[in-house]
Amino acid sequence: LERLWIHRLMYTFGPDEKPRRLLARCIRASQDGSMVTIAGNGRSFLNPIPVTFLALVLERSSMQLAQQPPGYMEVTNINHPEPWTVLEVAEHLCTIGSFDYKVVAGGERWPVTFHGRVDKLSAWLDRWGIGFPDVRRSLAKYREEVLGRGE
C-alpha cells in the first residue's frame, strides 16, 4: 500500500439494515407491538449516522487519498459529534413511533463506553463543504423509508 486512510465507524443505518439491529427492532416494534430489550442499561454509545453520509465521506476521502504522496496515512473516526447512547436513540425513536421497551442491566457483550473524537472528520467536512447530518431528522426519515418499503 502506498497510501492508507483508516475509517473507524461507530454505527450507520440505512437500506438493508439487519433486522436484529437496534433501529430495525425499534421500528418493527412500533408496528407489531413487540417489546424491545435494551441491554447494559442502554449506556453504550451508538452515535448513529445515515449510511448515505458514510458513503459521501468514503467517496470524498478516496478522492482525497488519491491526491496524497506515497507514505500518506490518515485515521478518522466516523461518528456524529453529538454523543448518543443506545437508550437515547430508543427514546427518540419512541417519540416518532411509540413502542414498548425495557432496559436491563446485563446482557451486553461489548459495551461501547467511549465517544470517538470527530475533530479530524470535522476538518475534512469543512474542507469538502459538507455538514454533519441532523440525527433526529435522519432517524425520522429512515423510519418512514422502512415503513414505506413494508419491512
Structure notes:
- There is one protein chain.
- The protein is of the alpha/beta class and 151 residues long.
- The protein has a single domain, classed as NAD(P)-binding Rossmann-like Domain (Rossmann fold, 3-Layer(aba) Sandwich), CATH 3.40.50.720.
- Helix content is 42%, strand content 17%.
- α1 packs parallel to α3.
- The chain is elongated, with a radius of gyration of 17 Å.
- The mean pLDDT is 94.
Short description:
The protein is an alpha/beta fold. The chain has helices spanning 22-32, 51-66, 86-96, 119-128, 135-149; strands spanning 4-9, 11-13, 35-38, 48-50, 73-78, 100-103. The strands form 3 sheets. It has a two-stranded parallel sheet. A two-stranded parallel ribbon has the order 2-4. A two-stranded parallel sheet has the order 3-6.
List keywords for this structure.
single chain; 151 residues; alpha/beta; Rossmann fold; two-stranded parallel sheet; 6 strands; 42% helix; 17% strand
* Shape category: elongated
- Binned, the helix content reads 40-55%
Please state the second-level CATH architecture.
Answer: 3-Layer(aba) Sandwich
The CATH class, by name, is Alpha Beta
